[in-house]
Amino acid sequence: MKVALAGIAGVPLGKHKVRDPRLDQADKLVKAGSKTYALVDVVGEDEASTADAIVASPEGRFDLIVKDLEFAQTRLERNPGAAGKAVLEKIKAHLEGEGVVAEAGLTPEELHLVESHAAVTAKPILVAEAADAAAFDSFLVRVVSAAGYISFLTVGGPENRAWLIRKGATAQEAGGAIHTDIQKGFIRAEIIGYDDFVAAGGETQAKHANRMSVETKSYVMQDYDLANFRFRK
Q: CB-hemisphere CA count at 13 Å for 92?
């Protein structure tokens, strides 16, 4: 996952840990050799067009809106088709009100008509104040969710670890986030919901309380599920 910064000072580019307190809680309940947070790539504004989400200062957000507004005006001057013109005018009006394209209420069909225009503010944009930038790795928990990602956990043994996957990912796809061999040889996933895990006081306790379910490859992962994958090697 890639996060672009716009107008944010003091946050270094590169790999950042998503410091989710739920992993901290899991690490207290299950002993392991280490604790590994999920990672995201933090890049500069020049890579905003390929990022999954943008973190901006209030001023940075405004600058992005201005850029998209200028782009929409340029596209309108090139006489797009009637359908494209209608969508661009809708976008232009929303931007002029200092709104972002992601919040313009466009239908999937309208988005398809203008997807080649690559409006930067069509991506999720989160405004970060000074306090958010100071605790940026913790702020990333919100960014990850807004970008359409969730995490799942693997616990025990060498490490307690959080893994990032897209919302809506299946158990088989989640296994692939760990290793392609798990996805290819997937047999089943043993799942414990995070709330059940915490309420029971740990993984073993949750199993004893019959809170573990055995799921097939089509199971849709939920945020912070504990997962153990069985696969053919």
A: 14
